[in-house]
Amino acid sequence: MIPTESTNKNRIKNRVKNRIRTAAGFATLLMPTLLSGCGSSTMVQTETEASDGLISVAFSEVGAESDWRVANSESMRTTFTTENGYEFYFEDAKGKQENQITTLRNYILQGVDYIVLDPVIETGWDEVLEEAKDAGIPVIVVDRMVDVEDETLYTAWVGSDFQKEGEMAVEWLETYLEEQGRSEEEIKILHVTGTAGSSAQLGRTAGLENGVEAHENWEIIAQVAGEFTQAKAYEEVSEILQQTSDIDVIYCENDDSAFGAIQALEEAGITYGTDGDVILISFDATEAGLTACMEGKLNLNVECNPMHGPRVEEIIQQIEAGETPEKTQYVEETWFTPEMLTGELIESRGY
Ligand code: GZL
Question: What is the three-class DSSP state of 68?
Fold first, then answer.
């Protein structure tokens, strides 16, 4: 949506202010180079060079570690297009917080209109978010959460209730075991966690651990770091299967790590899924994950919606119109079992 005249004036005024501050910032940064007479100074774009009338949205993405992540990046790219009235900046941090902090500082120096941050882990953001606030640049946090002293350091957060996702999985497991006549049986669970300290890992882990706490016949026999990737999960699960095959459930905190667990189970000759010995639970409900679930390879897949682009755009348009967006916006999510799924349904979901 192209902004109105009044919001345009506001933004240009803001942008000139930001650029003056940025030029000063650059000058300080470049001073040593200039004084030493080497290197070329890259002055900030003047107002006439900037793409006037477009809203600059600068996104710092976690990485490209999973199918979910790729869909999340795509949703942002296809929302913030020039045709829609935006100048879009994108940086993939390759899973490292230090890369995200560097990226945010560059966005601040560039004097962008909005920063969107998907924080790889929850802690360590206070300082750089303070710098963005001082620069007058609103920060919208998506997907994972930041744990900061001062909540005014970000304008809004939109994402999933990860603990609720875990609780949905536990509720389903409880019912499933009941239907199988196994509610009194000793249930041994292998827990494959996501990126340590990420909101998705913290929430999904809490959901499972609380569930185990409430069922004295459930036991987590091992917690291994799958880091949301197929390769790492395969390595970790293979190692466990060399020590024991006495496992009833493998709880994987995303689809990619579930695929790693499947690889390890197949190599060990252990059956899994709806007709196998091991119950497989996964999260994300990506196209690949739901297809595996439809084929009976996964018993349950809990949805985690990555399509944050449209929601972030709504927040930006509210700010542009002088409104105050809701601080915390949870997305609605559900779960899937094999009998619920068809090729058409999977196709219709778009990721
Ligand atoms: C969840 C997101 C997680 C996904 C993983 O919202 O942060 O990160 O569950 C992704 O697939 O790597």
Answer: helix
Q: pLDDT digit string (tens) for 148-188?
A: 999 999 999 999 999 999 999 999 999 999 999 999 999 99
Task: Report the C-alpha gap between 251 and 148 in whole angstroms.
Answer: 30
Q: Whose CA is nearest to atom 6 of ligand 1?
A: 143
List, as one string, the DSSP characters of 189-221: EEEEE-STT-HHHHHHHHHHHHHHHH-TTEEEE
Q: Is 19 helix (H, G, I), strand (E, B) or coil?
A: helix
For residue range 27-72, what is the model confidence (pLDDT) as tens digits? 444 343 333 333 333 323 333 334 679 999 999 999 999 999 999 9
Contact 240, 270 (CB under 8 A): no
Torsion 82-86-92-95 (CA) sign: negative
Residues with CB under 6 A from ligand 1: 65-66, 68-69, 143-144, 160, 198, 200, 228, 254, 283-284, 304
Q: What is the pTM of this model?
A: 0.85
Task: Tell how far the Cα of 94 is from the centroid of ligand 1, in angstroms.
Answer: 14
Contacts of residue 178, defined as CB under 8 A and 6 or more positions apart, other chains included, come to none
